[in-house]
UniProtKB/TrEMBL annotation:
Residues 18-109 form the Ribosomal protein eL8/eL30/eS12/Gadd45 domain. It comes from Thermogymnomonas acidicola. GO terms for molecular function: ribonuclease P activity; rRNA binding; structural constituent of ribosome. This is Large ribosomal subunit protein eL8. NCBIfam families: eL8_ribo (TIGR03677). GO terms for biological process: translation; tRNA 5'-leader removal. Multifunctional RNA-binding protein that recognizes the K-turn motif in ribosomal RNA, the RNA component of RNase P, box H/ACA, box C/D and box C'/D' sRNAs. Pfam families: Ribosomal_L7Ae.
Amino acid sequence: MEKSTYVKFETPESLEKKVLDLVENAYRTGKIKKGTNEVIKSIERGESKLVVIAEDVNPPEVVYYLPSLCEERKVPYAYAKKKADLGARVGIASAASVSIVDYGKNEDLYKQVVSEISEIKK
């Protein structure tokens, strides 16, 4: 399957697992926003700590401008291969995107994920 135009970098599997764990932990102990409209609002309000975007969103226009918005607002973002995997971590069938507003008790994992993302994007 060819990469969607909005996928700006390859997220290694090891990083994707950490990102999904962080999302799930934030869902349990912190605060997240799910659904592209909520994610966009949280980025624009400066609440987002990390945005996770699914790679298999159809149509891609739904999340197309999220990476650009994240870069503009200096919000780290990563990709999950499947929206079903992302959704499963936040208690819904599928999620095109999720924003972590409060990572709860997961500061170490959060810092590790953000540092790995910045390494990939260099």
